[in-house]
């Protein structure tokens, strides 16, 4: 999603539809051989701090600022303030963008763990149940919520994006009644993955995703990556889509998970621009749970 928009806009491909999410057990806990390796249900009193398995990203870039404005051109400043990131007391993590005195703040959190990868010969599934911010195209210009993953080396100061791999489980922009998913890999611009757009789903219609809970998931194996919306497939990228070296560099390592709501930046600009005077402040993204499960050799 994100770093791709540091440079240019995403190409839009229209397709597909999905139904409403339901509050049930995540995929992978149905006795089908999946083992849960990480989970957070975000239970706690309203206003409680971020659970211990997560880290705050603050400011406008990682330490050393290798990619200003988080590499995307977004205009908010990320904070650890409870008004931007906290539990809502109803079993959700709330990430809330706010406009005060002409400046936007918001929240961006990532897992402490950066070792999420499929076991040898097996599969890894990452899933979250999320309510995207309750905005429309009339009052949501500039909103850019997302759930995504980055290759672990980027946390160590490596600057080789997109080669190190980025998997966008879900993102949405400007209150549009749709969601998107993508893989970013190779080099930019161009390269085997068509960066900066990446290999993506394009817009998938989902008129209830803004203001309703849905389950967003991705399954990773050595041979392909599959994306789901409420268990319905929305994108599959096979390893054969790119050369072996590109696939290996983008996928054969650990990842960390990220949840955030950006304001402005390259992707919103691609769909009509950033925030306006009509953009609503204080519409949170709510996250019911995040679950990581594994299946296959070495998953227990």
Automatic annotation (TrEMBL):
<feature type="domain" description="GH16">
    <location>
        <begin position="18"/>
        <end position="298"/>
    </location>
</feature>
<protein>
    <recommendedName>
        <fullName>GH16 domain-containing protein</fullName>
    </recommendedName>
</protein>
<feature type="signal peptide">
    <location>
        <begin position="1"/>
        <end position="23"/>
    </location>
</feature>
<dbReference type="InterPro" id="IPR013320">
    <property type="entry name" value="ConA-like_dom_sf"/>
</dbReference>
<keyword id="KW-0732">Signal</keyword>
<dbReference type="Pfam" id="PF26113">
    <property type="entry name" value="GH16_XgeA"/>
</dbReference>
<dbReference type="InterPro" id="IPR000757">
    <property type="entry name" value="Beta-glucanase-like"/>
</dbReference>
<comment type="similarity">
    <text>Belongs to the glycosyl hydrolase 16 family.</text>
</comment>
<dbReference type="GO" id="GO:0005975">
    <property type="term" value="P:carbohydrate metabolic process"/>
</dbReference>
<dbReference type="GO" id="GO:0004553">
    <property type="term" value="F:hydrolase activity, hydrolyzing O-glycosyl compounds"/>
</dbReference>
<dbReference type="InterPro" id="IPR050546">
    <property type="entry name" value="Glycosyl_Hydrlase_16"/>
</dbReference>
């Amino acid at each position: 999603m994100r770093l791709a928009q540091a440079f240019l806009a995403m190409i839009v491909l229209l397709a597909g539809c999905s139904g409403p999410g339901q509050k049930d057990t995540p995929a992978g806990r149905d006795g089908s051989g999946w083992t849960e390796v990480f989970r957070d249900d975000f239970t706690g009193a309203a206003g409680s701090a971020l659970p211990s398995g997560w880290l705050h990203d603050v400011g406008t870039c990682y330490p050393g600022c290798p990619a200003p404005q988080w590499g995307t051109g977004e205009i908010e400043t990320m904070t650890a303030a409870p008004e931007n990131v906290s539990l809502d007391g109803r079993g959700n993590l709330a990430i809330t963008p706010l406009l005060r005195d002409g400046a936007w703040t918001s929240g961006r959190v990532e897992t402490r763990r950066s070792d999420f990868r499929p076991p040898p010969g097996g599969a890894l599934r990452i899933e979250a149940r999320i309510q995207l911010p309750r905005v429309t195209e009339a009052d949501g210009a500039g909103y850019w919520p997302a759930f995504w993953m980055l290759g672990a080396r980027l946390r160590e100061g490596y600057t080789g994006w997109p080669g190190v791999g980025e998997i966008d489980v879900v993102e949405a922009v400007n209150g549009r009644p749709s969601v998107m998913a993508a893989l970013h890999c190779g080099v930019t611009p161009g390269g085997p993955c068509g960066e900066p757009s990446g290999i993506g789903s394009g817009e998938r219609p989902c008129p209830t995703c803004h203001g309703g809970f849905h389950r967003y998931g991705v399954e990773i194996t050595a041979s392909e990556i599959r994306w789901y919306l409420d268990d319905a497939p929305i994108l599959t990228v096979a390893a054969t889509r790119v050369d072996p070296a590109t696939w290996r560099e983008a996928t054969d390592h650990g990842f960390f998970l990220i949840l955030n709501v950006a304001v402005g930046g390259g992707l919103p600009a691609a769909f009509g621009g950033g925030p306006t005077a009509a953009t609503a402040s204080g519409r949170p993204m709510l996250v019911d749970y995040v679950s990581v499960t594994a299946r296959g050799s070495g998953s227990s």
